[in-house]
Structure formats: structure tokens, C-alpha cells
Write a structure and sequence with these properties.
8-stranded mixed β-sheet, D-Amino Acid Oxidase, Chain A, domain 2, 10 helices
């Protein structure tokens, strides 16, 4: 639909009062084939792919608050597939491929910007490890390049390569990586799922999971009444443990806070995503000009969506050491997401010991970038009652079986027990 400048001005002054809704606000039905708990990126993507790929359209997504008010709107929007392990790399590469066609798939601009990602290297050991990872990426069809010091500084001249804390000797570049607009991802999946008949039910908190005499999950109690279902998928991010406990299920995860920050807007300064593992710092520039960055988890368990000042100081200190010009910028705001951290840094997309109950959790630092593949694989698992090869390793009992996925540097603080 085309609008003239005058019509756009008229609509703006009217407060968009007569604009059609992007998705319905239905009342809950008494029964659904599938209920998804959590209307974040993973939950919405799961419902969309259930309807589109598997023809399961009698689906409800239940969200205790507003659509996208959890972690999907509280992150640094980085998308990449520069992983090492055979269990993880194919999954994240598939997710990146889905990202590349997502705006066209959803008929909605998710503002996916493949600006490239530079992971800075600080020692000979870093370079050796990066070469190994780059080779693994290439073997799995991902793109990877190793840059020397001069090539790296040409791409990010604002880096101080000789700083005493984080000297730079090269980088691992993934050109296809980048960022996406998190709220656009939510809106795109929500509208597309709604058009396929999925019910998105906001302000509907799950208070209990009902089980029959055989122990199978058969429905949920909510603040808007009981809703029956043949299958229930949990995609509640940092609150997964609380929801799973309603079904008598104890998860091997902890919930931690992860803070993110944004500065005042400035002219184009950084056209890549830049990360470095030594300080666990990552930064990019948004379309509005603000520099968006983050670092490590807060060092204690919490469900709060707010951060603390020691983490602010540590993060900004790392950033200024690496990019001294950041010291001249004003920090506009910071926030926190609630991270469900698994013991090995890898997620769960699987059936649970409770019949009819399926789990999508434990995303650690990888949640946003995994959104399309997570929903795609979770939908497959729910619809067919078996995992796809891409998520067959992300099972709940892998620790009991001694098959932990050793995702180094991606797991939680060492106080897990």
C-alpha cells in the first residue's frame, strides 16, 4: 500500500487510530492441539513453523505479559554462526541461513544487516584456536577468514591495538554475520503466525500444568482459566525452571542476569560487530547511531530485569581499554535479560520425561541468534515427536549420559551445582 506525504501526516496526527491490527487478540479456546508457553522469539517462531511446515494450526501462544517483553527485546541483536563443535555449528549455520531469507519469508522487514563480525585475537594461542574454528566453519559450509593485525585495524581503526590489557594481533572474520532488529523479529513472526491461524494470547500467565493419572501433561491453568492441550511446549527463557517445576520437572539450568548498554547516537563510527573473548565484550552500532554493547553475566542468580553498577563499571572499563574513544560518549541506558544458563553452555530442544511436554531452554548467550533455527527445530520435535538431526544432541539427559557438549566459554558462572 502506498501513502502520500499528506496521508502519512494525517495518519500520524490521528494516532494511527484506524490502522488495522497486525495480529488478532483472541479469547482462549477450551482446547488446542499445541500450547506454547512464552511469546518471545523462540515461542513465536515455533508456532509459525508448526503452522507453516507441519500444518498444525490449532496452536496457542501464552504470554504472561506483553508480546516480546522478555529476552527477545533485551539483547544486543548479534547474529552469527562462528561456532566450533559439530553439535552446535550446523545448527547455528542453519539459523544464519534462515536469517538471510527471513524478511522475505515473513513478508516483514526484520532489518537483518550482514555487516560482518570481527572476533579479535590477542595472542598466538588465540590465533591457533581461531584457525581451528575457521577450518571447522568452512567444513560445515559457513564462511570464515583469518585476518592479520594490519587487515584487522583497517576494518576497525578505533581499536587501540597496543593497549596493555587487550593487545590485538588479528581477527576471525565472518562476513555473513551481523545484527537484526529484535522488535521487528517479534512483530514479523507474530503477524505471520497469526495469519496462519495461531492464537497469540497476551496477559495470560500459566499458573499450573495439569497431568493425568498416567503423568502426561494435558493442559495448563492460567490467569484466564484452564486450557487443555494435546501437547505443551515450554519456551519461557530465563523462567523455564519455574514453569517446568509446575510439571514436577527439575532442570539442570540456573537463571542469571546479562546486562546490555547503549550510548548516545553518533555519526557512523563502527560498521562491523566487534567481539573479543578475553574481556568477553561485544559491540556494534545501531541504525540510530547508538553503540550497543555488553559483556559478562552478573555473578549471582536472579530473575530481575535490571543490572548492577559493578557490572556497568567492569563492562565500560573493558570497552574503553579496547576503544579509547568510547570514554567521550554518554551512556543513555542499560538493562538486563534473564538468562537460562545450562551447565555446558548449550541449549535444550527436546522431549521431556513428562509425556506431552517439550522443552526449549538453556540458551545461555546464544538465544537471539538462534531464534529461527530454534523455532524450526522445536516445531519439528513437537509435531513429529522426535528431534531433527540439527537438535538431536540438545537433549535433557545428556549430563546423566556423560555426553555434555563442551561449549568452552559459553556456560554460566562456576557456582553451578
Amino acid at each position: 500500500m502506498k501513502y502520500s506525504l499528506l496521508s502519512l501526516l494525517r495518519q500520524g496526527l490521528k494516532g494511527h487510530a484506524d490502522w488495522p491490527r497486525a495480529w488478532r487478540e483472541p479469547e482462549p479456546k477450551e482446547r488446542y492441539d499445541v500450547i506454547i508457553v512464552g511469546a518471545g522469539g523462540h515461542g513465536l517462531a515455533t508456532a509459525y513453523y508448526l503452522a507453516k511446515e507441519h500444518g498444525v494450526r490449532n496452536v496457542a501462544i501464552l504470554e504472561r505479559g506483553n508480546l516480546g517483553s522478555g529476552n527477545v527485546g533485551r539483547n544486543t541483536t548479534v547474529v552469527r554462526s562462528n561456532y566450533l563443535l559439530n553439535e552446535e555449528l550446523p545448527f547455528y549455520e542453519w539459523s544464519l541461513k534462515l536469517w538471510e531469507g527471513l524478511s522475505r519469508e515473513l513478508d516483514y522487514n526484520v532489518m537483518f544487516s550482514q555487516r560482518g563480525l570481527l572476533e579479535l585475537l590477542h595472542s598466538d594461542a588465540d590465533v591457533d584456536a581461531a584457525v581451528r574454528r575457521a577450518n571447522a566453519m568452512l567444513l560445515h559450509g559457513a564462511d570464515a577468514e583469518i585476518l592479520n593485525r594490519e587487515q584487522t585495524l583497517k576494518r576497525v581503526p578505533i581499536v587501540d591495538p597496543d593497549n596493555a590489557r587487550f593487545p590485538v594481533c588479528g581477527a576471525l572474520l565472518q562476513r555473513r554475520a551481523g545484527t537484526a532488529r529484535h522488535d521487528a523479529v517479534v512483530w514479523g513472526y507474530a503477524r505471520a503466525a497469526d495469519r496462519l491461524g495461531v492464537d497469540i494470547i497476551q496477559n495470560c500467565e500459566v499458573t499450573a500444568i495439569r497431568r493425568d493419572n498416567a503423568g502426561r501433561a494435558i493442559g495448563v491453568d492460567t490467569t484466564r482459566g484452564h486450557i487443555a492441550a494435546d501437547k505443551i511446549g515450554l519456551a519461557a527463557a530465563g523462567h523455564s525452571s519455574r514453569v517446568a517445576e509446575m510439571a514436577g520437572l527439575r532442570l539442570p539450568i540456573e537463571s542469571h542476569k546479562l546486562q546490555a548498554y547503549v550510548t548516545e547516537g553518533v555519526k557512523p563510527l563502527l560498521d562491523k560487530v566487534v567481539t573479543f573473548g578475553v574481556g568477553h565484550f561485544y559491540i556494534s552500532q545501531s541504525d540510530k547511531g547508538g553503540l550497543v554493547f555488553g559483556a559478562n553475566l552478573d555473578g549471582y542468580n536472579s530473575y530481575a530485569q535490571r543490572g548492577n553498577l559493578p557490572n556497568v563499571e567492569t563492562t565500560i572499563e573493558a570497552g574503553v581499554h579496547l576503544m579509547p574513544c568510547l570514554s567521550r560518549l554518554r551512556l543513555l541506558r542499560h538493562w538486563a535479560g534473564v538468562m537460562d544458563m545450562s551447565m555446558d553452555g548449550s541449549p535444550f530442544i527436546c522431549k521431556t520425561p513428562v509425556g506431552g511436554l517439550y522443552l526449549n531452554a538453556g540458551w545461555c548467550y546464544g538465544g537471539f541468534k538462534a531464534t529461527p533455527a530454534s523455532g524450526w527445530c522445536f516445531a519439528h520435535t513437537i509435531a513429529r515427536d522426535e528431534p531433527h538431526p540439527l537438535n538431536e544432541h540438545f537433549v535433557l539427559d545428556r549430563f546423566h549420559q556423560g555426553r555434555a557438549i563442551d561449549a568452552k566459554g559459553a556456560g554460566p558462572q562456576p557456582n553451578l551445582h
